[in-house]
Amino acid sequence: MTASLSTTVSGADTDPRLICAPELIFDADAVHAALHGACESAEPGARRAAAVEVLREVQENGRAEIARSFAAAPFDARGMTRAYTYLTDQLVSATLDVATRHLHPKPNPTESERLSVIGVGGYGRGEMAPFSDVDLLFLIPYKATAWTESVVESMLYILWDMKMKVGHATRTIKDCIRLGAEDYTIQTALLEHRFIAGDCKLAKALDARLASDLFDGKGRDFIEAKLEERDKRHLKQGQRYVVEPNVKEGKGGLRDLHSLFWIAKLIYHVDRISDLVGKGVFRPDEYNTFRAAEDFLWAVRGHLHLLAGRATEQLTFDVQVQVAEAMGYQDTCGRRGVEIFMQAYFRHATAVGDLTRIFLSSLEAIHVKAEPLLERFFRRRPKIKQGYEVVHNRIAISDDKAFLTDKLNMLRIFEEGLRTGMLIHPNAMRLIKANLHLIDDDMRETPEAQRIFFDLLLKHGNPERALRRMNELGVLAAFIPEFEPIVAMMQFNMYHSYTVDEHIIQCIANLAKIEKQELEEELPVASSILKRGVNRKVIYTALLLHDIAKGRPEDHSVLGAKMARKIAPRLGLSRADVDTVEWLVRYHLLMSDMAQKRDIADPRTVRDFAKAVQTVRRLDLLCVLTVCDIRGVGPNTWNNWKAVLIRALYRQTKRGLQTGLEDINRENRGAEARKALTEALADWPSKDLKAEKARHYPPYWQGLHVTAHVAFANMLRDIGNGDVRIDLHPDEDRDATRACFVMADHPGIFSRLAGALALVGANVVDARSYTTKDGFVTDAFWIQDADGNAYESAKLPRLRQMIAKTLRGEVVARDALKSRDKVKKREKAFRVPTSITFDNEGSEIYTIIEVDTRDRPGLLYDLTRSLAGANVYIANAVIATYGAQVVDTFYVKDMFGLKYHTVAKQKMLEKRLREAIADGAERAEK
């Protein structure tokens, strides 16, 4: 006897509808006839193989039919999961029939030879993705007999031969009760058991015993175990907005929904989540949210399995594009289809979090969930304002109707949360979410609303807590409607670790930490700026709005500035403050770009930046905003290299603004550098020191720190024409290793050095090349290992050995790089268009070529080799990496020492560079 699919229950409503006609998936009469014929015509020893051959073909045809139907209806998750469950049911039933009828026939089995096949876990729930595990319980009345063991063994071999991933156990009813009481994992699996085939009476006896002896409805320990399991899972998987989420195990994923169902089934004795509406736990709209989230997540999981051809749950970057395409998401209005898809994903994940909070509060209300830990330890409750009460150590609303009579209460409750340090009760959250319409234009422009909002940002020291909860409940987007499009918006690149809204909240969290002097050692400049004092309203507003225009076709800085001009007055800012906020939003990338993409040792860079900033007040604000913006991108984005660049640009610009920009020039820098070298080499004979200072051209003195000048002086001392000298020095302050090279000058040396460094896996972040008056090249590269750190001392000898081999010609970089210069699979989905620009204004003596393209290990080598082939002299290179994107900036002159002014020469160089990029990209894709 086999259970029909219509008796299956699951987390959502029972839905026996399949994605296509049942007979197209599994034609029972035809299959049984084929099995009977195959087994009867085969020798006894070959019957199992004959049955497998029939069933495997049926399985492949059924799976193909479901996949075709799902591709045509990509959001029909219920039809898809039911279809795979139906196919599995029929295959398991047919396998039992083959084992008992053809392989181990027993016309008159004894009482002890009864067997019932039960589905447990997700299979028991009746929800299967294309490659889900098949968890089976072989239920027997007493101790296993030789016959039942043979039947089970044969069934398993047939299922395994069909490449099914089967989890199994053979147990009696007594075993199930005993083991279920000892192990919550087994108890959970039994909670979702479903009869598939075999002895129906035995299955019904299990139902009765489980209901009376294991699932008695108390379950407090079970709930605590499931919630602890969930917390550990979330800790492992990361936060909800992690950019490569796990659909099953991640925060807001399917496992969270399953946990709700398990607890609901045990405590409320329901077979469907929809039954919780009748129990008063969920409102109808909340149940609809549950159903929509469950449908979406199951659809994503189904496509993920089919695309991978195996069970996989991680939405990696490369697969996100494919799933988005399979579900019909298309590029529109400047956004990629994959970004629209992931925004939908994150919004459903947030909804799952909301439902979880609501459900857990209902458990607290009926005293089956332990009260919050803090309340158990600290019985003394903080005083709370009128209109609120404390329930389970959370702020609850005393009278819903009274609360809603004053629109400002929609903001005040968050202020009360920060003031008392308590969380908001889920029932209060439900009330807020259901009444967001109260936050209208009239309320937004009320001075009191503006005061409360800025108090949330400025007064309590942890604004991110209020902003995050306001964002999750929709209050932030209601108060600032322009914020709504960026909620849960993903930026499809490897650089940003968070969605746009979470990035903004992370930025503000960083600002609050700097204000509290918690990062003084790590961020001395930003900390000192805030210690001296800035306009706090302006800096917080600018950070809140700096990415408000992300996801539009226009430049988000330009459009964001226009939006800020409209939003800031609505928040109550004065006209002067609005102007400053607008400027900060418009130029929020300026300092970062100048520091990371330009040579800040060039006085022209600093002068141009100072002219754009104009005042020290603006410089202070922009510096703090820049630091927070970079740190808010991801946990590992900020490093010492960026810190040194930002600090140097800030200090030089501030000095220029205070003492006059005319002080920022090559002559002054050169004189200061030579003086510093004289002091550092005080023990050198004056004759040698004079010769060293005379052998270099002016650019050498402005581009390097005195420590590099000292290193080169020692390397050049007594050097012969055939010598190659290498100095590798960990520069801990910059998280990089400084690699200095001295040798006789000849064409293409910069490119060969770049190739040698690429071969050892070094990432070049900065490079400078100078020629001495007596014909030696002095090149300095700053390099990092794969983790973005300076090389460990133990690794430097191997690094030196490989570089020396390459320079001697024993290893040819171009050939050796072919096998290593590859784009990782997960990075291939990113679109990184190539852009090449020429700037003759940004430097007094060089043309600046900026190449913005996809990063790969051999890129710098390819670009420098191409430039060397065109007789281009590279003075220095500045490399800024943003995930899969890189900006390589070259300061160059032609062979006569002139800039590249003519359009024809620029076009020729651009063509060569694009060809080098295209050839390298083709090689990397192979």
Query: What class would the helix/strand composition place it in?
Result: alpha+beta
Distance between the termini: 55 Å
Low-confidence stretches: 1-15, 374-379
Gyration radius over CA = 34 Å
Helix content: 40-55%
Query: Which outline best applies?
Result: globular
Average of pLDDT: 89
Layout of helices and strands, plus pairs?
Layout lengths: L21 H4 L2 H14 L5 H26 L4 H27 L12 E4 L1 H5 L8 E6 L6 H16 L4 E6 L1 H10 L1 H8 L2 E5 L1 H15 L5 H18 L16 H15 L6 H4 L5 H25 L8 H10 L10 H29 L7 H5 L10 E4 L2 E4 L2 H5 L4 H12 L2 E2 L1 H9 L6 H4 L2 H12 L4 H11 L1 H5 L20 H16 L8 H9 L3 H10 L10 H15 L4 H12 L3 H8 L5 H11 L2 H16 L8 H20 L6 H15 L5 H9 L3 H6 L2 H11 L7 E8 L4 E9 L4 H11 L3 E9 L4 E9 L11 H12 L5 H4 L18 E5 L7 E8 L4 H11 L3 E10 L2 E9 L9 H23 L1
Parallel strand pairs: 2-3, 6-7
Antiparallel strand pairs: 1-2, 1-4, 5-6, 8-9, 9-11, 10-11, 10-14, 12-13, 13-15, 14-15
Q: What attributes does this structure have?
A:
single chain, 926 residues, alpha+beta, eight-stranded antiparallel beta sheet, four-stranded mixed beta sheet, 41 helices, 55% helix, disordered N terminus
